[in-house]
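Sequence in, structure out. Go.
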Amino acid sequence: YIDCDTHYFPVKFLEGISDKYPQSPRVVRNGDEVKSVLPDGTLIKNQAPKGRWHLDTRVQQADWEGFDIHVLISENRELLYTWDRDLGCELARAYNDAVAQDLKECAQPERYLGVAWVFLPDVKESCREIERAVKTLGLRAVKFMGGFKDANLGAEKLWPLYDKICELDIPI
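Output:
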């Protein structure tokens, strides 16, 4: 049994980004309590319990739920297309690096399918990042949200990304 709607948020991926991008979302930790906040402290959301973002703890939940594999799709609220280009691309790289690192460090990586995220408004960078995420990091799919500004998911400007995804033979 495969759970495809697992919402994974490797909390460490935001740590360090706010040093370079003061306008970025950030993580606030209090033990296992984790919150995502905007720079002014406005709560984006309380993260799910540790079992949802720590893979060695999460596997116990997957067993209890009866799932053999969790597809690690990104949370949406911190990964939006409203960030400026540089921050959006940096968030994508950091997220993908964190997922790959968590998979490498967990005890049962075969229980998870790592999914990349790309900053869709920059199509050229999205193509580079998805290739890096698959070929270098070993992620096996990509997730992105609906359209942005003047581009829906069928917009011609996104076709190069779809070509890249077909070339890599991965699911969206």
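Check: The chain has a mean pLDDT of 88. The longest helix spans residues 85-105.
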